[in-house]
Write a structure and sequence with these properties.
Helix content: over 70%
Radius of gyration: 41 Å
Distance between the termini: 36 Å
Number of helices: 13
Structural class: alpha+beta
Number of domains: 3
Order of helices and strands: HHHHHHHHHHHEHEEHEE
Number of strands: 5
Strand content: 5-15%
Strand order of the largest sheet: 1-2-3-5-4
Largest sheet: 5 strands, mixed
Shape: elongated
């Protein structure tokens, strides 16, 4: 849509030029006829030809149906016509015996303002190589006409042949400047678009974080108020039921009904709290979820934390992302509780066609057989979670030398 709007703007500019040129050649034809008293002569014929082509171009550039029909060829056809016809309109003077090379040069320079418009539009819309093609066409056509007017080529006539080259240089400078300006503008537009996209992404991320924090705050408040109240109510009802003992059947039935409602309400509340609490990976994505996790863990563990994540993580299934997050969560929790580490690092990188997460600490480490001890349920859970996703989990540790955990996934499994 944006490219189409730009093309429409170019066509409108081109059409405006053809309207001005049409008025110019009409006025020139009338003035020449009044001055010379002739309606048909080489000068008049040239004006008529240019008037006709600009009239046809004006209609052509106003015909939207034809634009839709020709598509990308629509503008090039108009530019070719606006270039070729004025160039070869000079051919009408070849039959005049009074025409000299000097007069031909003067006439060709009179076409300079006419040819400058298609040149600028070509430089505006296309690569510089098309500008070079335009320059070659205009220069060669003029040199052909000049050669037909020169009997010999010597030091006297050589400067005349150099004049088309001067015009070619002028065309080249104009085309180069316009092309550079347009290229710079497009680069700036691309950079601005990229910056807007990043700004939008940051705004969305900030909004997601704000929503997540608010949901967690509400969950905590509901847990501290409603859930605790319902739990206390259930305990009190149970105590009343015990104190009543036997012989109060109707009251016991009502207490059982109240207990049932209280327990149902407590269950529903806990379910609502679970749903209300943010699901880190699903809601925020793996990268932001890991950043939040590391920030929270380092503040609780009182150790220096180094996080190295790529700018963009590879696309992967939600199951694998959950595995990475949960294994990182369990690993960092173990470091906080047991490792007594001073430095911890977490990094994700690509290595030998694999997607890897590496967690390392300089804590107290552990004995290798602790991986199979009854207290190592966290490590077992991590291995099971990795196996379910087709990942490979490597855990290395030595007493006094810290622990290294490496989770590896082949890219074709991501």
């Amino acid at each position: 849509m944006r490219a189409r709007n730009k093309r429409t703007e170019v066509v409108q500019t081109f059409r405006y030029f053809t309207g001005v040129a049409m008025a110019y050649f009409a006025a020139l034809s009338l003035f020449t006829a009044l001055q010379t008293g002739q309606i048909v002569n080489p000068s008049q014929i040239q004006s008529y030809v240019n008037l006709a082509i600009n009239g046809v171009l004006f209609v052509y550039l106003s015909w939207s149906w034809l634009e839709r029909k020709l598509g990308r060829l629509y503008l090039p056809v108009g530019l070719i016509a606006a270039t070729v016809v004025p160039l070869f309109s000079n051919l009408v003077y070849l039959a005049s015996p009074q025409e000299t090379a000097q007069i031909t040069i003067v006439r060709s320079w009179l076409l300079f303002p006419i040819l400058i418009v298609p040149l600028v539009i070509i430089a505006w819309q296309y690569h510089f190589r098309y500008v070079l093609a335009f320059i070659l066409l205009t220069s060669i056509s003029e040199l052909v006409i000049l050669f037909s007017r020169l009997d010999t080529i010597n030091f006297e006539t050589l400067p005349i042949l150099g004049l088309p080259l001067i015009r070619a240089f002028a065309f080249g400078m104009i085309g180069h400047i316009v092309t550079r300006l347009i290229t710079t503008q497009r680069q700036q537009e691309s950079q601005l678009l990229s910056a807007n996209i990043k700004l939008s992404e940051h705004a969305v991320t900030l909004e997601q974080l704000t929503i997540s924090r608010e949901r967690n705050r509400l969950a905590r408040e509901l847990h501290d108020t409603l859930a605790h109240t319902l739990s206390g109510l259930t305990v009190n009802l149970e105590a009343i039921k015990i104190l009543l003992g036997d012989g109060h059947t109707e009251i016991v039935e009502r207490l059982d009904f109240a207990l049932k409602k209280a327990r149902t309400g407590l269950t529903d509340t806990r379910r609502a709290l679970k749903d209300l609490r943010v699901k880190q990976v699903e809601d925020l994505g793996l990268k932001i979820a890991l950043e939040n996790l590391c920030l929270q863990t380092s503040s609780r563990g009182e150790f220096d934390f180094q996080l190295k994540l790529p700018e963009v993580l590879p696309d992967s299934s939600i199951q694998i992302e959950q595995a990475y997050y949960r294994i990182a969560q369990e690993s960092l929790e173990n470091i906080v509780k047991h490792a007594r580490a001073k430095h911890v690092s977490l990094s994700i990188f690509l290595e030998d066609g694999c997607y890897c997460m590496h967690i390392e600490d300089d804590g107290i480490g552990f004995e290798p057989d602790q991986q199979t001890s009854p207290d190592s349920l966290g490590i077992r859970g991590m291995k099971e979670r990795a196996a379910e996703c087709g990942c490979q989990l490597e855990i290395e540790g030595q007493p006094g030398k810290g622990t290294q955990i490496k989770l590896i996934t082949e890219l074709n499994h991501v």
